[in-house]
């Protein structure tokens, strides 16, 4: 089976994401990368936990002054839903429904953009209403590094998935691009994994005090 | 081959079987999603409701986050499927180092 061979519903394998050697390597390499990302985010979480509420002056805002439930709740629901829509995309990929897969990935991108928009609004709000900036305190540095790094991952994921959608729009599904789509969806789920800990450790625990 | 093509010799039968299997799996994914939303709601409500102390809420919402991440990894990212031995090794190693890192930072700087 050649990777760029024109596939049909009949010839489409059950696990297209791991059919070729290149796909198997990609799958393995990407999971190794995700293991590394886990460690990377752990160091950022650890830094945040250690420096949380470390401010030089007592009039500066602390975590419990900054965070509000409605905004974080909306962001969480949006990102969680975008994780499900990319599951739908991979479901259609396995069924060789190229159009449906592209549509679900499109919805994922729209939800990701909404999340990013809310995050930009949030950071802007903290900077202008509270004077909580990257350089205002150790707390600020740790907060923006952790949450901003996650936001950068979302932005990169959006670029990645959008590129895949556009690059392959006229190509259709084949064994060359199916693993690419699959790995991008893994990346998107991992962004949601990190967010689960961010909304719990940073926002909810921050509001508890 | 564990993840190869399932072949009965009749492609039509295979496709129908696979579609049914995929549809069934998708149904499980939607149930997983509903559970994740439910866990998230409980975590937010536990914090919004002012009747609990931090000593109860913090371990409780961390536990909910842990459960939710297991759902995400094992169902949405298919880590429960066969052929995921290496991903499991990578992720467990990552989680172990992550745990030790966070333990070190928090204990050394706080105590």
TrEMBL record, chain A:
One of its GO terms (cellular component) is plasma membrane. It is found in: Cell membrane. Keywords: Cell membrane, Membrane, Transmembrane, Transmembrane helix. It is a multi-pass membrane protein. The chain crosses the membrane at residues 28-51, 71-91, 103-121, 141-166, 186-206. Its main location: membrane. InterPro entries: Cyt_c/ubiquinol_Oxase_su3, Cyt_c_oxidase-like_su3, Cyt_c_oxidase_su3-like_sf, Cyt_c_oxidase_su3_a-hlx, Ubiquinol_oxase_su3_dom. Gene3D superfamilies: Cytochrome c oxidase, subunit III, four-helix bundle (1.20.120.80). GO terms for molecular function: cytochrome-c oxidase activity. GO terms for biological process: aerobic electron transport chain. Residues 1-207 form the Heme-copper oxidase subunit III family profile domain. Pfam families: COX3. Belongs to the cytochrome c oxidase subunit 3 family. This is Cytochrome B oxidoreductase. It comes from Cytobacillus solani.
Automatic annotation (TrEMBL), chain B:
One of its GO terms (cellular component) is plasma membrane. The chain crosses the membrane at residues 30-49, 55-77, 89-110. Keywords: Cell membrane, Membrane, Transmembrane, Transmembrane helix. Pfam families: COX4_pro. It is a multi-pass membrane protein. It comes from the Bacteria. It is found in: Cell membrane. This is Cytochrome B6. It comes from Cytobacillus solani.
């Amino acid at each position: 089976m050649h990777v760029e061979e024109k596939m049909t519903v009949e010839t489409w394998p059950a696990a297209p994401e791991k059919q070729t050697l290149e796909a198997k390597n990609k799958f393995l390499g990407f999971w190794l990368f995700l293991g590394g990302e886990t460690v990377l985010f752990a160091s950022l979480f650890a830094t945040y936990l250690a420096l949380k509420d470390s401010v030089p002056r007592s009039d500066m805002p602390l975590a419990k002054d900054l965070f509000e439930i409605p905004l974080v709740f909306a962001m969480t629901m949006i990102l969680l839903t975008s994780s499900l829509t990319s599951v739908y995309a991979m479901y259609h990929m396995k069924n060789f429904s190229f159009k449906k897969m592209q549509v679900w990935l499109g919805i994922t991108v729209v939800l990701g953009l909404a999340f990013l928009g809310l995050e930009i609004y949030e950071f802007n709000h903290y900077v202008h209403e509270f004077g909580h900036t990257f350089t205002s305190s150790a707390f600020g540095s740790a907060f923006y590094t952790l949450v901003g790094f996650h936001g950068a991952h979302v932005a990169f994921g959006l670029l990645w998935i959008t590129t895949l959608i556009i690059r392959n729009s006229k190509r259709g599904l084949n064994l060359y691009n199916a693993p690419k789509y699959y790995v991008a969806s893994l990346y998107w789920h991992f962004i949601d994994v990190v967010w689960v800990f961010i909304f719990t450790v940073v926002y909810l625990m921050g509001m508890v005090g | 081959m564990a993840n190869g093509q399932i072949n009965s010799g009749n492609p039509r039968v295979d496709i129908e079987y696979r579609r049914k299997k995929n549809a069934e799996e998708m149904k499980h994914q939607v149930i997983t999603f509903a559970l994740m939303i439910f866990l998230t709601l409980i975590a937010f409500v536990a914090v919004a409701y002012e009747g609990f102390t931090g000593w109860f809420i913090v371990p409780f919402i961390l536990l909910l986050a842990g459960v939710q991440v297991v759902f995400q990894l094992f169902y949405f990212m298919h880590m429960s499927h066969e052929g995921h031995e290496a991903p499991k090794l990578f992720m467990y190693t990552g989680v172990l180092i992550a745990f030790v890192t966070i333990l070190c930072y928090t204990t050394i700087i706080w105590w």
